Amino acid sequence: MKRKEKQKPPKKEGFFKQLQNEFKRHKTTFIIYMVLRSLVILIGIRLFILGKYESVFLCLCTLVMFLIPAFVQKTFKVELPSLLEGIVLFFIFAAEIMGEIGDYYVKYAFWDTMLHTTTGFLAAAMGLSLINILNNSERVQLHLSPLFVALVSFCFSMTIGVLWEFFEFSADMLLRTDMQKDTVITGISSVLLNPEPVNVAVKINNITETMVNGEVLNVNGYLDIGLIDTMKDMFVNFIGAVVFSVFGYFYAKHPGKGTGSRIVEGLRMRRRTNQDDAEKIE
Known about the structure:
This protein is mainly alpha-helical. The protein has 2 domains: 15-178 and 227-278, no CATH class; 183-224, no CATH class. It is built from 11 helices and 8 strands. It has a two-stranded antiparallel sheet.
């Protein structure tokens, strides 16, 4: 009698290969992923030839960050809509490649503002998604009112914004970066400048120059060190969070009705089902 040969178990795919296969389940997202990844690789090769190795490292980090949507889907067993995946990929490219390497943060004043507004909007969408997943969970008995869903969504977004500003501040203090960009202002108001020990601010207006260690800086005013930039980022994050939270309120109150509900559906994560796992490519 012939001995039956043992069948070899199928070769297990590597971790990064599994993440890339997640993108293949959504054809449109996969095309966006491949185009942006190819651009980053070409930019990285050019920067390597020019000897800009720090920017090359940033390109490598960007390639890893492109896998974040797939990582979230695989790790947390949730399904991200194609629209949300595409926006996240474009956001990473706009922030890291165009913003940092292409100097868009310096060339275009609105670039950082636009990205922080988008962050507030998307983070609110993620907050609503988490609440929606818990509301529909059989293991967790959680049923929130539409107003509370909107409030939690808003608070989640603002928390993400605050944590990011903590990260920027820490990087500036510890690594001497300039993530919290400086702002030139022509007037200040400070209690510290008052010679008397009283809580009365001294106002200085029409500032035309700033001197540090006897050297006049090339700025036509006083150099604010990041506070205005931080508060502006928080404010536009607030705007993005409020806008989505309003959509989220009407979505929770009247599911499937109105433009707001369609926007929420396009950005809302949901728990992955067996049918989702069976799908290969849309």
